[in-house]
Prior knowledge:
By secondary structure, the chain is mainly alpha-helical. It folds into two domains: 12-69 and 231-374, no CATH class; 76-217, no CATH class. It has 14 helices and three strands. It has a three-stranded antiparallel sheet with strand order 1-2-3. The two termini are 44 Å apart.
Amino acid sequence: MNSLTNIKLKGDRVIWAVVVILSVISLLVVYSSTGTLAYKFQSGNTEYYLFKHGFILLFGLGLMYMTHNIKYTYFSGISLIAIFLAIPLLLLTLMKGSNLNEASRWLALPGTSLTFQTSDFAKLALIMYVSRVLSQKQEKIESLKEAFIPVVLPVVIVCALILPANFSTAAVLFTTCFVMMFIGRISYKHLLSLMGMGLVAVLLILAVGKLAPKVFPRFGTWMKRIENFSSNEKDAKGNFQVEQSKIAIATGGIIGKGPGKSSQRNFLPHPYSDFIYAIIIEEYGLFAALVILLLYLILLFRGTRIATKSPRMFGSLLAFGCAFSLVFQAMINMAVATNLFPVTGQPLPMLSMGGTSIWFTSIGIGIILSVSAGEAEKTTSKEDQLSSEQEVSIA
Length: 395
């Protein structure tokens, strides 16, 4: 009991509150939406996924707590180790990863039934590394050789390794790094050239995907999703996920059907991950949908506020990069569920069921809190110093 009372939460209290609220909502909705899984794989034991997901969330909160106690400046050195681990892991995943729907995204941990999604680790490693390089190159930030290439090269390598199996994750990560480079004062002409190279890369992928489909096994799936989204005609097979999601949203209305009363969870593929937002609206209504959206916007606002208050470029970029990546992914997930964006397969951070996704999201939020805690300690020490100086002058 004493050990629990000695736990002290540092950093932004609003972010801690947002995380706790999201975790509670996640526990309720995942429990409700995994009924089909329970009857299919656990002989109807619905509590199995409740306890499993609860453990994952608690472990994630533990990782967040441990991470936020690490001084954020240490992540600069950690990023070097992380990025050099991430690249070989991504290569290994492409060659020997667990294959599902023509996508190798997971590495099986030896001797266990557990899997590890390497792109989640690589995403966080790259954000830390880009923050490090940009902060160190500020004096030569206009230089192509000294600043632009050292930043862009790892971004291109990591995104290229993620892309064959997970285009949407590669796109989210590339966009995050591009925004970080913009904030980090990379030359506009270099950023424009990067946009041009990105466009050329997309055209090359389209050409290679059509001429040599084996190079990008997921190419057909990507194109089909875009065609289904852009087509005005209803394709019952191609748009099945989206149609079921829209039914869930429409029947939910303003106040929802009530907790555990979703009917579309029995028809909607992945109601506990990719389309969990639709289940939230069906059970808790439009009001809950707006609350979820507001929580993510608060997280982005607080993360940006922490970034602007940090006197060090590394802390600013680190906090903003982690916050932007998390909220951008959330916006894409919600846009997919509401048919504003093609189906991507991006989970809803801290809400969707998942292991490594929740854990690395928790570490990312822990990093934001670490930056916040570091700056709060500096402010407190300055105030103490000023008060002591005033006491001396009065004496």
